[in-house]
Amino acid sequence: RMADIYLKYPTHKASISQVADKGFLYKLINNSENIKSVIHYDEYSKVLTVEDPKFMFYLQNLDWTDFVKRIGFSKINFDKKYDFALSFAGEVRSIVAELAILLFEEHECSVFYDFNEQHKIVGEDLTDYFEPIYKSDAEFIIVFLDRNYPRKLWTNFESDKFKERFGEHAVIPIIFKGCEPTQFDKLANIGYLSFDPEKEQSEQIKSIADIIVKKLDEKRRNEPS
Hints:
- The structure is a single chain.
- By secondary structure, the protein is an alpha/beta fold.
- It folds into 2 domains: 2-62, no CATH class; 82-221, 3-Layer(aba) Sandwich (Rossmann fold), CATH 3.40.50.10140.
- The chain contains 11 helices and 7 strands.
- It has helices at 2-8, 13-21, 24-30, 33-36, 53-60, 64-70, 93-105, 118-121, 126-137, 153-162, 201-221, and strands spanning 39-42, 47-50, 82-87, 111-112, 138-145, 171-176, 193-195.
- The strands form 2 sheets. A 5-stranded parallel sheet has the order 4-3-5-6-7, with helices on both faces. A two-stranded antiparallel sheet has the order 1-2.
- A hairpin with a 4-residue loop joins strand 1 (39-42) and strand 2 (47-50).
- The chain is elongated.
- It starts with a helix and ends with a helix.
């Protein structure tokens, strides 16, 4: 059951739930006769079963560390719940949403984007819910700095939680045209990415996604396995 997997691997819950809840796992299995012959997944009960005992034996004795590397991943164990957490003012939500979708669908990253977790957030104490995400639960915090960002209550709350992570090189600012830091700003010595609202949006978002995913991959390749 997916519920049992979430409990056993809490740091992978965000990634697994996106694959299972959005139909990707079901489509992967049912679009392949080879996979479908040995694995069954019920999309409604969210129960995954292996039908073939020989295949189960194979899985139990597979060298997963080697398997992960052969399919292109750098490591099998992850310390953080999310690869990226997004911090932004509501006025730029359409831009943020496009990046979130691209990171998840094209790069298979685990992304904290508030609209994706509304069902989890509703009824919760928001300060308690958001604090660990921006403080420690994401490998990188992606901050969309437009002119509205400093004026918002929640962006100020989020930035207060992730400010210590500048020392870990874990905060990646995306600075909008016209909001560039001066030599007196704290961000003056921090490398950042630029976004120009007057230019084509999707092309810029794709470039940003490629850069931050490359940074994530490089960080993981340099970490102990």
